[in-house]
Amino acid sequence: xKYCNTLRVYHRCGSCGKKRQFxxxxxxxVNANGKKVDVWLIYQCVKCKHTxxxxxxERTKPGKISMEEYRMFLExxxxxxxxxxxxxx
Length: 89
Hints:
Layout: E1 9-12, E2 19-32, E3 37-45, E4 51-60, H1 67-74, H2 78-85
Antiparallel strand pairs: 1-2, 2-3, 3-4
């Protein structure tokens, strides 16, 4: 799997049971129920490949996300994933 070159992220791995480095996969997970939208950037443990979702938008009204950015989330735009992966905020 190709990883996006972004900031190093350390998180407790649910599989390893230890704090490990997670790599940005360059992919998003989007969940929308009509009234609210959730978007996560998917990271993967570099040792065991267990995934962890970093919240980008949580319980957000669809109108707060531009249609272009929403389309990019759905298409797993690698440049957008790298941009979010390098955003310390």
